[in-house]
């Protein structure tokens, strides 16, 4: 029997929105049922529905007499899948409607066929009528629908970035670029750029600080020169700043906290192979599988431990010269890569995360040698997790000195506490870094 991609998309979106599951967990389960380009089509539909969820919900609500609940709830998401295809994809309208209607059979409920067909055809008539309107009136659209973000998040971004909030929300709606990290043990960035040109892979941008490479179009990693041999890895340009800023030296004893999936761990070792040791810890044992996989592909070695960074239960007693604390955070800087964050994260989660970050930061600081460096990092754009968090830490500890970060940007505020990257800057993810010296 032919597998219906729209049915899989509806199941996936239902699992994320109604059951609170991660798209990163659910999507691969459904993709495993497909082959070739169908995997990509499923991903595009799921990501699209989650990017434009409020807008799609609004479209459907105007065409359905009463909400679909209970055991039939998955068909609500099937309608969202259908409307997304019509509104945003290049799939012909008749194909979008017919394939979505056909999904009712795959979802084992032919009774819903008539409803799905009627709603999607009704939506087509609505779009046609709107296109014929000569004098379109400007309707007041609520911000969550207009910007496709939850209201609480929009307010936080408006408060924190009064001049940039719309640009941040817009950046979150874009498809993310594919960034490459070149393994310096094999090639320089310039040498690998030449290999990409030879392979006819177009380069869009090279980030000057880290020499990270952004491709013009994402592609299968199998097409990257030397990927299986460890010549290159996929990692966003913002995340690649971590190894550069930590600036490990030969014979340093290094700790990477909350290390999974291990991209920064590997980058640090690639950049400074003669460090004395690398310890990578993460509280979730399952996530450390990715760390081991990355280390193995790159032929690198680290001491990988399942451990809670908020405790010392795992610690041998030897203090570290350099510590990277990639703290648990809201993930609000990587929404374009993980659109489900908008709907899985709740307003009251932020205060809980801030408390957890404080606990980890206070604990890990005691593991740092006097004269050592700690790099605090998050993939968040919220000040309470970033500059406000570091301000609190500096105020409460006498042995901390903030080290200015040189990002070679003339617009950078010299008095800023740390370095906040926003998701529209140089087409990188939203990220925050603060570099702290432990005074002797």
Automatic annotation (TrEMBL):
GO biological process, one term: rRNA base methylation
Catalytic activity: cytidine(967) in 16S rRNA + S-adenosyl-L-methionine = 5-methylcytidine(967) in 16S rRNA + S-adenosyl-L-homocysteine + H(+)
A single MF term (Gene Ontology): RNA binding
InterPro entries: MeTrfase_RsmB-F_NOP2_cat (IPR049560), MeTrfase_RsmB-F_NOP2_dom (IPR001678), NusB-like_sf (IPR035926), NusB_RsmB_TIM44 (IPR006027), RCMT (IPR023267), rRNA_ssu_MeTfrase_B (IPR004573), RsmB-like_ferredoxin (IPR054728), RsmB/NOL1/NOP2-like_CS (IPR018314)
SUPFAM superfamilies, A to Z: NusB-like, S-adenosyl-L-methionine-dependent methyltransferases
Highest taxon in the source lineage: Bacteria
Active-site positions on this chain: 379
CDD domains, alphabetized: AdoMet_MTases (cd02440)
Localization per record: Cytoplasm
Name of the top EC class for this enzyme: transferase
Amino acids binding S-adenosyl-L-methionine: 258-264, 282, 308, 326
Keyword set, alphabetical order: Cytoplasm, Methyltransferase, RNA-binding, rRNA processing, S-adenosyl-L-methionine, Transferase
Record-level GO cellular component terms: cytosol
EC number assigned by the record: 2.1.1.176
Gene3D superfamilies: Helix hairpin bin (1.10.287.730), NusB-like (1.10.940.10), Sun protein, domain 3 (3.30.70.1170), Vaccinia Virus protein VP39 (3.40.50.150)
Domain SAM-dependent MTase RsmB/NOP-type per the UniProt entry, residue ranges: 168-439
Known function: Specifically methylates the cytosine at position 967 (m5C967) of 16S rRNA.
Name this polypeptide is given: 16S rRNA (cytosine(967)-C(5))-methyltransferase
Organism, scientific name: Colwellia demingiae
Lineage: Bacteria, Pseudomonadati, Pseudomonadota, Gammaproteobacteria, Alteromonadales
Gene encoding the protein: rsmB
